[in-house]
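Reply to dn_fold:

You asked what the input looked like. This is it:
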Amino acid sequence: MGGRRRFPLSRLEVAAATGVLASYMLGLVGLYLTMPASDYRFLKLPRTLEDLRILRDHLESYTSDYTMQVLMCYFTVYIFMQTFMIPGTVFMSLLAGALFGVAGGMVLVIVAATAGASSCFFLSKMIGRPLVFSLWPDKLTFFQAQVAKRRAKLFNYLLFLRVTPTLPNTFINMASPIVNVPYRVFFLATSIGLIPAAYVTVRAGTALGELKSVADLYDFQSIATIFFIGIVTLTPTFLSKGQK
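and this is what came back:
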């Protein structure tokens, strides 16, 4: 019995998370009820490019006639997925490009992704500490030490993490409030740092029919460019160290 792992959340914390989940679900139901009567069996979270193309084909007509409802549904689903660490937001970013083009899709993805990351940040601040300690103990120790060491240039460090895949975005969203990253720094680094990856996926979404695999999104040139931007964001940190 001593080897059994204790569930990381208390009953109160589970109740709080359930309340947030129920609020999102009620919001989605409310939006669904405002849509015209039709067969919506095609509405599901895409898990493959084929799923995504089917969803795109059905939503194109609704997007022109019911733009506000489609936007609200998109925002709610994207934020819901990020808040509760549901994989598949890359397909949502591709969908934004397919439905709204590069400029509109970029704005949509960056705003939705930043809102979703913020929602996850605040939910973790309320109830996430035991969950983060349980899921990522080693990563959390590393992240906490790095945040403490780079406190003076914390924005640059977080921007680097957002631009490059050094640490998973889900972990950053959950762990940041645990290690006392100020929300203002978190918000700015997230909204700016997500731009390169958002551009790559949204642009690919505009040519969804030509995409053979999600892996094709990140060719050598894209990865090299993202890492170059990441190194540039850390330059002020390196310079400040050299002057000490």
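The CA atoms of residues 51 and 210 lie 15 Å apart.
Hope that clears it up.
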